Amino acid sequence: MSGIAFTDHCDMEYVNQMDVASPIRGSADDSRRCQEIHAGRLKVLTGIEMGEAIWYFRESEEIVQMLPYDIVLGSVHAVRSRLGREPYSQIDFSGFTRDEIDAYMRAYFDDMSEMIEKCDFNVLSHLTCPLRYITGKYGIPVDMEKYEAQVNQILRQIIEKRIALEINTSNKGSRYDAFMPTRRIIEQYRAMGGYLITVGSDAHVAENTGYMLGQACEMLKEIGFPALYYYENRKPVPCRLLREEKGVRVSG
What we know:
Blueprint: E1 3-11, H1 22-37, E2 43-51, H2 57-64, E3 71-75, H3 98-118, E4 123-124, H4 131-137, H5 148-160, E5 164-168, H6 183-191, E6 197-200, H7 213-223, E7 227-232, E8 235-244, E9 247-251
Parallel strand pairs: 1-2, 2-3, 3-4, 4-5, 5-6
Antiparallel strand pairs: 7-8, 8-9
Helix pairs in contact: 3-5
């Protein structure tokens, strides 16, 4: 890799329980130190992953404006649902009925659509992430065709607002062995005229940094994307997708 972006979580559902801003300042300081250490060898970018920004909109705006980020991710990690407002990673879906799963997924897409409409961010992260737990952890199949209208609405929104779609690789090789979103949704995004696309390994531990990025780039090449993007000073920068004998490399 020729660059890396640090986008630590800022999950706003906890804003009244703990200091969510100071760790982000610390992450930005670490990024700047890394920039100095690796100057000329590795591009190090400063970012943030805003979760549940619509829950506390004013406080979220203040944090987004707090620092000169290169990239701001918009995420839904918890859903405003009668079935539970805790992060879906902490919910036991094994006791949910089919109707309750359906209601939860619809609420998830509603929250995401509202976030896109109201919040200031550059990249929509890990669309369909609840499936990592509903299907991957608890083995409950979900018919995504039922949510096609909601997903298409989300894709239209990000295209209109020039928000990039992230291809998140962190699930590949796991029990939910799929990119987030799935290839079908990525193809639909392309068919609708979407072109701003990023790839992220969502590495929560160092050894997962860059995980499966080559496979994701190969898929994007097959679908017909001429480039992927990274963000610097909150502006999209294109990188051509170039094929080599031993795989795919990204060149800027």
